[in-house]
Amino acid sequence: MASSLTKDSARPGTPGSEKTFFGHPRGLATLFMTEMWERFSYYGMRALLPLYLVAPGGLHLPAGTATAIYSVYVSLVYLLTMPGGWFGDRVWGPRKTVAIAGGIIMLGHLTLALPSSGTFYAGLGLVAIGSGLLKANISTMVGHLYDGPDDPRRDGGFTVFYMGINLGAFAAPLIIGTIGESVDWHLGFALAALGMALGLVQFLIGSRNLAERSSVVPTPLSGEEKASTLRKAAIWAGIAVVFYAIAGFSGHYTLNWILVPLTLLGVIIPTMVLVRIKRDKDLDHAEQSKMSAYVWFFLAAAVFWMIYDQGGSTLSIFADSSAENSVFGWGFPVSWYQSVNPVLIMALAPVFAWFWLALNRRGKEPSTIVKFGSGLVLVGASFFLFLAPLSIAEGGHKAAALWLVAIYFTQTVGELLLSPVGLSVTTKMAPAKYASQMMGVWFLAVTAGDATTGLLSIAGVDLNKTGIVALEATLAVLAGGAVWMYRKKVKELMGDVR
């Protein structure tokens, strides 16, 4: 990546003489590489996770339990972005928070690499905590590199940064997945730790190129607030320790004692956050109206992510047991399916950007609501497609790999319609009072969707059965249709936001 750094021939100190990264501040290279390696470790481990959970050489759990664990883990990562942002804003500042987060993630992957089921869940917890801390703060530091929201390089900078995410996500299953499945599961997890270590070293070496404000704690806690926060944290930690000690020593403890509370939190906390903002009497009429409209988007997004994130659990477990994982006679590891989405994102995102711009010039670009509804319909259509390989498998045959590729392709197109629009509409509709918190609220839609999947799995619902897949597909299509049918009402609630 160093070869892409260029230096103006002018003498140091003159405008334009600083080193750049593809024409952007040099600090972007640091954040690009840090995020790329962090995503490499995260998506590599995530590709292995459901397969390791069901494998005879792994934990050998039932598919339903594996799906529940996977869903709870993913929902926890996104749930923890809110306290992660709080730590960056009030305790350590973004730069220190990211450095600490990288260390926690690396420790978590190393813990997963230990050949012991007893430490496995502790490792998952550490990776989730570290990911929540990092995810909430590294994007903030990208913004710090630019001269305010009107800097013409800002959008391009975020585009380059998100390319790092997809590069890491694409390479991880091919490398970590292959080693984990073909050589040793724990060696695969150790490779994820190595990836995060490389990212952390890159971050510490290149941090001198970051903006000074990334080291600043924007709204530090007062002494009284620190004492109160520590006291409350100690009380809740003590309650948890006592509760689980009693459950353990009495012989009643099972995995569900952890999974059920976490899945319930994944549904309850997003609901509480939305209700709290909606009921805030400080919001004026226009802001209240926009929040009413935002609830529509939030619920629709939760349905979308509930289905979409099963690409890493339900579909992966199906591929492991019931698919012919080969193309023209050439076999490949199941985890490689997880590279399909990021490579499609990198290929299709520029096409979509061009397409919307072309339609906009002609005054024919679809509205935010139409894009959102279309994304929901497509993710529903992907599960209608899933019915075909399920039927083939029920007939005693192996389903072709291209069926799964078609499902991932349909979901990716749906993601490109819904996810960027969701991020944009979140920033546009955020009440001034909650401007910095609303991105965390958007991530809570992912939490709610994955927590719902977790609850279904814990309740014993087999997500690889034709009936439940058809039901989920129908729910998504109906939700997309409802968004489209009520588009005029939602537009009125959105006020001046388009």
From TrEMBL:
It is a multi-pass membrane protein. InterPro entries: Dipep/tripep_permease, MFS_trans_sf, MFS_Transporters, POT_fam, PTR2_symporter_CS. It comes from the Bacteria. Pfam families: PTR2 (PF00854). Residues 1-21 are annotated as: Disordered. CDD domains: MFS_DtpA_like. The chain crosses the membrane at residues 43-61, 67-86, 98-114, 120-138, 159-179, 185-205, 233-251, 257-277, 289-308, 336-357, 369-388, 400-418, 439-461, 467-486. Keywords: Cell membrane, Membrane, Transmembrane, Transmembrane helix, Transport. Gene3D superfamilies: MFS general substrate transporter like domains (1.20.1250.20). It is found in: Cell membrane; Membrane. Belongs to the major facilitator superfamily. Proton-dependent oligopeptide transporter (POT/PTR) (TC 2.A.17) family. This is Oligopeptide:H+ symporter. It comes from Streptomyces purpurascens.
